[in-house]
From TrEMBL:
Residues 1-23 form the signal peptide. It is found in: Cell outer membrane. Belongs to the TonB-dependent receptor family. This is TonB-dependent receptor. Residues 67-175 form the TonB-dependent receptor plug domain.
Length: 791
């Protein structure tokens, strides 16, 4: 039977891969040649619980009135160790994931979208604690790859259309992604792993679980992970240290108390953004390998002199943005919290979490645009005697935020009533500074925090106060065949900016909407069949920063738009059906989204130059689509998962200037970076000894200009893993070996687009993108081998 199952799996994959690859080739454009309990308002069925007992790696959200799907720790374990938890959910319908490295962890290039909504329009939480919008240079949170070690993620839940009312987020216009940490084990143990792979990748992971301590209900774990890897192109290391700790005290009928602490120190050497100009001159294959030119400092200085003096650039370069010397990103994060889940009386419980997050960050760049002046100091405070035509530019960040979330739930008869709230105070500081460099020898590192600037371009402090509440009720009727839920949330976010240096705006602005309703229903047609529908309204609050949001423009610009600016809002209509019988899970959903007051910050010159943005309301977007998913367990060891997503998102308005003249003909154009078709498939095998997976992902073309004349072609990529668990005692006990290959077919393709702001059109006029570094390419085929040992 096992042999037949393997043969069937191979046949299915053999049919899937060529079909998807063929589809990718047809649509490829020249540019690419060149089980925590559900929230109140949702219900869990036996199908959910059964899936968990069978250790399904994908759960299709049975009993939910919204489109909700989950991947479990079993799925994350099949990814390359150290991969972002986001990479594990790219297989789900409606999820678009892009990265420039094999781990999906290089934050500048990581993008995740749901149904055409981009990353900063989604909501993200870890154990209910807000992570902000997880954008690079995040002003109100941190990236999940820093918040928790991937092996410690127990489950990830994706709501493609709308998150639960109690989700602690003010950016979730288009859905939520919620991460849940693993619980400490009941028995003491030690888990270790070591990984080596392409580009001298070294990674180590260790976790010690205490088990239950004595006769108490206390248990916990402490874990550490380290990653060091070279870039797949160019020169420079990627490094990260992480520590996670968690304690849980089981209080029996009274509930539980848990506490956690997460630490991350991340140092990333940047990959170079590419320009269409460079691709057109060098050709796609040559341009694909172009990167920052470290350690060639002499050529970087020659490029700077050519730009500053108006002379010829060193061949083959023709402008200052073709290549840079080096750049990097630094992030230190501390995140901690305490949760008290109190069972106060039969049917009555209150869950409260308090949290605090501290961040220090820096984005660094060796800039050819500004020379080091005479009298500038080096990092040690000494006067630089031989100034370079380059200087070292930083964008510096610090976050200090704390908050509390709480929800009370009361269940009586067929009703479950819930009320809750969230409060957060966030102090964010940001500055852009310039530091001196010596000629001939680079005496500053892109991966070190800097001292002794010679200039500050801008600096400011921002205070953001968030208050949110929600009320909801769930009603079960007709012996639980029909479940109705409804409620609303209200939110107010006050933003205050105080700019001490530079031309950018100070002031106050707020976004509030005290009534954002949500309603849904689930009807069980049969024990294995259910239909569902929901309606949700959401609002995205403004962001407080010098590099994004309403304060990123000039004071005059802010004063002019402040009285007329409206926050982005969305209305989502969704409905579908699910089927679960024996080894088969399937779901089908359709949706319509009415998105209003879309705000866009148009670039003013090269994105890297850091000029004040031009913020505009670019009107509305209408989107509709469908998602189909099938998960079939052929045998206890072999399962197949496949899905198809269709998304049709178009702008409803042209962009006009203040005098009414046409700025961009966007009406009827497709939303940028939103593929219309995605097809994904995966085969997973695990018989207890041999285990592995192979997955394919097809995405149709994407546009990365508002007028749709910049195109990233469709592409198909595949990843694979295979491993073996040894049997025996002593050193053979709990020992396994695993091999992973990413981008199995070594596809060359455009991955992340709009790194430096969405462009209007492809020409070289102001607002064009021909010379603007504005897209990344995907990593080539990479391999990794991992040894794991438990004690």
């Amino acid at each position: 039977m096992i042999g037949a199952s393997r043969l069937l799996a191979g046949a299915a994959l053999a049919a899937l891969v060529p079909a998807l690859a063929s589809a990718a080739d047809v649509t490829t454009q020249a540019a690419s040649d060149a089980v925590s309990a559900p929230a109140a308002g949702d219900t869990a069925t036996d199908a959910d619980q059964g899936a968990d007992k069978n250790k399904e790696i994908v759960v299709l959200g049975f009993g939910r009135s919204r489109q909700v799907q989950s991947v479990t720790a079993a799925d994350i374990a099949l990814q390359t160790p150290g991969s972002s938890p986001l990479k594990a959910i790219e297989k789900l319908p409606g999820v678009q994931f892009e990265a420039a490295d094999p781990f999906g962890a290089y934050e500048w290039a990581v993008r995740i979208s749901l149904r055409g909504f981009n990353q900063n329009q989604l909501g993200f939480t870890l154990d209910g604690i807000p992570l902000g919008d997880m954008s690079y240079g995040n002003v109100n949170g941190l990236h999940i790859s820093r918040a928790i070690i991937s092996e410690n993620v127990g489950r990830t839940e994706v709501a493609q259309g709308a998150g639960a009312l109690g989700t602690a987020s003010t950016s979730n216009l288009g859905g939520t992604i919620q991460f849940f940490s693993d619980s400490p084990t009941a028995v003491a143990g030690l888990k270790t792993s070591g990984t080596y792979g392409a580009d001298d990748t070294y990674r180590a992971y260790i976790r010690a679980d205490s088990g239950y301590i004595g006769n108490t209900g206390l248990k916990g774990y402490l874990s550490y992970a380290f990653l060091k890897a070279d870039k797949w192109k160019g020169d420079g290391p990627q490094r990260q240290h992480q520590v996670n700790a968690k304690l849980v005290e089981d209080l029996g009928d009274l509930g539980s108390i848990s506490a956690f602490f997460d630490y991350s120190a991340r140092r990333e050497t940047d990959y170079q953004d590419l320009t269409l100009n460079l691709v057109s001159r060098l050709g796609w294959k040559a341009a694909y390998r172009v990167d920052n030119i470290r350690p060639d400092y002499a050529t970087a200085e020659a490029i700077a002199r050519a730009y500053q003096n108006g002379t010829a650039y060193p061949a083959p370069y023709q402008n200052a943005d073709d290549v840079y010397y080096n750049a990097g990103g630094l992030r230190n994060d501390y995140l901690g919290g305490i949760t008290f889940d109190a069972h106060l009386a039969p049917g009555l419980s209150v869950k409260t979490t308090g949290y605090y997050h501290n961040n220090k960050g820096q984005g660094s760049w060796f800039t050819p645009y500004t020379a080091t002046p005479a009298g500038a100091l080096d990092n040690d405070g000494n006067v630089i005697t031989n100034p370079s035509p380059l200087s070292f530019r930083t964008t510096e960040y610090s976050i200090r935020r704390g908050g509390v979330t709480s929800e009370a739930t009361y269940e009586t008869g067929p009703n479950t009533f819930a009320v809750g709230g969230w409060y957060e105070s966030n102090s964010f500081h940001q500055a852009r500074r310039y530091y001196g460099l010596s000629a001939d020898t680079p005496d500053r590192s892109a991966l070190d925090f800097q001292s002794n600037p010679f200039a500050t371009q801008y600096e400011g402090s921002f205070d953001t106060e968030t208050m949110q509440y929600h009320v909801e009720d769930t009603l079960k009727l007709f012996d639980d065949k029909l479940v109705l839920n409804g409620g609303w949330k209200g939110v107010r976010v006050n933003n205050t900016a105080h700019v001490t240096t530079g031309p950018l705006a100070s002031g106050k602005i707020d976004a509030k909407d005290w009534f954002q309703p949500q309603a849904g229903a689930v009807y069980h047609l049969a024990p294995s069949v259910e239909i569902f529908a929901d309606y949700t309204e959401n609002m995205r609050a403004y962001v407080s920063a010098l590099t994004t949001g309403p304060f990123s423009t000039t004071q005059a610009g802010f004063d002019a738009l402040k009285g007329n600016l409206k926050p982005e809002t969305s209305k989502t209509y969704e409905g579908g059906a699910r089927f679960h019988a024996g080894p088969l899970q399937a779901s089908a959903v359709g949706y319509f989204i009415d998105f209003k007051n879309r705000l866009a910050a148009f670039a003013n010159g090269s994105g890297i130059a850091g000029n004040p943005a031009i913020l505009s309301n670019v009107g509305g977007v209408h989107a509709y689509g469908a998602e189909l998913s099938v998960n079939y367990r052929l045998t206890h060891a072999l399962s197949l998962f496949a899905n198809y997503s269709y998304n049709h998102s178009k702008y409803q308005d042209n962009v006009v200037n203040s005098d009414g003249s046409l700025y961009a003909a966007t009406k009827g154009k497709y939303v940028v970076d939103a593929p219309e078709h995605m097809i994904k498939g995966e085969v997973v095998y695990d018989d207890g000894a041999i285990f592995g997976r192979i997955g394919g992902n097809y995405m149709s073309k994407r546009y990365f200009s508002y007028e749709n004349d910049l195109v990233a072609g469709g592409r198909f990529t595949a990843d694979a893993s295979i491993g073996y668990r040894f049997k025996g005692s002593g050193w053979m006990k709990e020992l396994s070996i695993e091999a992973n290959v990413t981008n199995l077919t070594d596809k060359k393709y455009i991955s992340t687009v709009d790194d430096n702001n969405v462009q209007v059109r492809a020409d070289s006029s102001p607002g064009g993108d021909f010379d603007n570094p504005n897209f990344m390419v995907g990593a080539p085929r990479q391999w990794f081998v991992t040894l794991k040992k438990g004690f």
